[in-house]
Design brief:
about 550 residues; Formiminotransferase-cyclodeaminase, Chain B, domain 1; Alpha-Beta Plaits; two-stranded antiparallel sheet; 11 strands; about 55% helix; globular; formimidoyltetrahydrofolate cyclodeaminase activity; FTCD
Length: about 550
């Protein structure tokens, strides 16, 4: 499985496009790395860059960018409203696909070590990568900012994790982090609000307003309500408003919608309101979907709607286009990554194009059609569930049907993906058969490749058959508990699934005859037989029950 990580370096330059372009060129020069976003801020004099790719390539690209930034950004002349400590202020390493938090910490350490050793820039690790409790909090490391860095490096307590404690007047220091940076905004006089909410909270004061300190002279604090949130407030001239700026360190602990909802409560207490929010850089799809589902639930609506509808609900509810347009294709990581592939995906093409190519001499066939039938089946029983949620007289079934709809959307999306999986499996078989076979070694290699590709051409339809066996029970539940005005759709859903199952079964049969591994064939063929037999029995029962219910309704 391909591993993908995201890197979101923040460079202390937001006014000179030529300087940022030079840094971006370094990132673009690394193969297998895709630059997703570059967000320059003149007021903060800061640019947030986002790129993704394989771990090795992302680390190389980050190193090149940090190196270039240290050469062309002069921190001794830098001024801006955002706290900063170096030319590359922070450089978070974030998991995207098939990568754990622990692995990202190791990637951060590798990058930090290289920056410290080769570029001679002092490096501090923070958050999950922190080497001591004092360095977990980014604000603590940034305390004193660039201007106080020279003195800070003289303190043994602040010896860098990598690099020598020698002040570099141009580059400053670089902080390597593991976090998720999601920024939101509001029109309130925000300092009081964020002090009540951020994890660090505010200084504890006595009746006279004096800060209370412990025996060591350290200020005591009153923690805020939102865990894993750092924040401050600034006024942005461009937007003509005050903006609460937050670092959501882990959106699984405190999400965007939790932060916005809490700020709305605090703003209301102070006679203010939230007008919307802004994401700097790009955002994981999961975070957006969580927000959309949250607000659909608050509205009492079914959460089993399409991904597109959930995303749109999140955009509208969070007010993500309040100050700048929010384009999901540009701002959501997974969508941006998918754009380069979407043109070749059949599931994203118009239905007429699909039908026209299916009817011609193309690589579309029964396997792809069976996958499409599975998607149609899922869509139909999901529709029945959604027609039930919120309808009077079905209150006791709302929760159950909401869950049916949610699962149905997942099934629909999975089956659509199998259209392209089937095409890919077919193409692998064709490619393997075209391999050269002039020598004995070439013949042996070709034989192995054909065998493996053909097995895969069986496994794809087999996976569709297994999935079909899962969803037949959902159709039965929808028929029993769903809106009576949509009973016929449950019947059609079952018959689509029946056709899909037989379709992929035929594909299994036609391909296993070309597989020499009899042990493998004798293992998978009986499984397919049993799955189809069980599914047939359930479909026929649904068909019978549906017909009975419709005839009773008619009478």
């Amino acid at each position: 499985m391909q591993k993908i990580i995201e890197c979101v370096p923040n460079f202390s330059e937001g006014k000179s496009k030529s300087i940022i372009d030079e840094i971006l060129s370094e990132i673009k020069s690394e193969s297998q790395v895709e630059l997703l976003d570059s967000d320059m801020g003149a007021d903060t004099n800061r640019t947030v860059v986002t790129f993704v790719g394989s771990p090795e390539n992302v680390i190389n690209a980050a190193f090149k960018a940090i190196s270039k930034a240290s050469q062309i950004i002069d921190m001794s002349k830098h001024h801006g409203t955002h706290s900063r400590i170096g030319a590359t202020d922070v450089c978070p390493i974030i998991p995207v696909k098939n990568v754990t938090m622990e692995e990202c910490v190791e990637f951060a350490k590798r990058l930090g070590e290289r920056v410290g050793n080769e570029l001679k820039i002092p490096v501090y690790l923070y958050e999950k990568a922190a080497t001591s409790p004092d360095r977990v909090n980014l604000a603590t490391i940034r305390a004193g900012e660039y201007e106080g860095l020279e003195q800070k490096l003289k303190d043994p307590k602040w010896k860098p994790d990598y690099g020598e404690p020698i002040f570099n007047p141009r580059a400053g220091a670089t902080i390597i982090a593991y976090n998720v940076n999601l920024n939101t905004k509001d029109l309130a006089i925000g300092r009081d609000i964020i002090f009540d909410l951020r994890e660090y909270g505010r200084a504890k004061r006595d009746d006279k307003g004096e800060i209370i300190r412990d025996d060591n002279g350290k200020a005591l604090t009153i923690p805020g309500r939102l865990k894993a949130v750092k924040g401050g407030v600034w006024y942005v001239e461009k937007y003509q408003r005050c903006q609460i700026t937050m670092n959501l360190v882990n959106f699984h602990i405190t999400s965007m919608h939790q932060a916005v909802d809490e700020i709305e409560i605090e703003a209301h207490k102070r006679g203010c309101r939230v007008t919307g929010s802004e994401i700097i850089g790009v955002v994981p799809l999961e975070a957006i979907l969580e927000a959309g589902l949250h607000y659909l639930k608050k509205q009492g609506k079914s959460q089993g709607v399409s991904e597109e509808d959930i995303v749109e609900c999140a955009i509208q509810s969070l007010g993500l286009s309040d100050v700048v347009p929010f384009d999901p294709k540009e701002k959501i990581i997974e969508y941006k990554l998918a754009q380069s592939k979407s043109g070749n995906q059949w599931m994203n093409k118009p239905i007429r194009t699909f039908m026209n190519d299916l009817s011609s001499d193309s690589f579309l066939g029964g396997g792809s059609v069976s996958a499409l039938l599975g998607a149609l089946s899922s869509s139909l029983f999901t529709m029945v569930a959604n027609l039930t949620v919120g309808k009077k007289g079905y209150e006791k079934n709302w929760e159950k049907m909401n869950e049916i709809a949610i699962q149905g959307q997942k099934f629909k999306d999975w089956f659509l993906e199998q259209i392209d999986e089937d095409i890919s499996a077919f193409n692998q078989v064709i490619s393997s058969r075209r391999l050269p076979q002039k020598t004995d070694s070439e013949k042996e290699k070709r034989k192995k490749e054909v065998e493996q590709a053909t097995k895969n051409a069986v496994l794809v339809p087999f996976s569709v058959l297994k999935k079909a066996s899962e969803i037949v029970d959902f159709i039965a539940v929808a028929l029993e508990n769903g809106n009576v005005n949509a009973l016929s759709d449950c019947g059609v859903s079952a018959m689509c699934l029946y056709s899909a199952s037989w379709g992929v079964y035929y594909n299994i049969l036609i391909n296993i005859q070309y597989i020499d591994d009899s042990v493998w064939v004798n293992d998978i063929k009986p499984q397919a037989d049993d799955l189809l037999k069980s599914l047939e029995e359930k479909v026929f029962k649904i068909q019978k029950d549906c017909k009975t219910k419709l005839e009773k309704k008619e009478n």
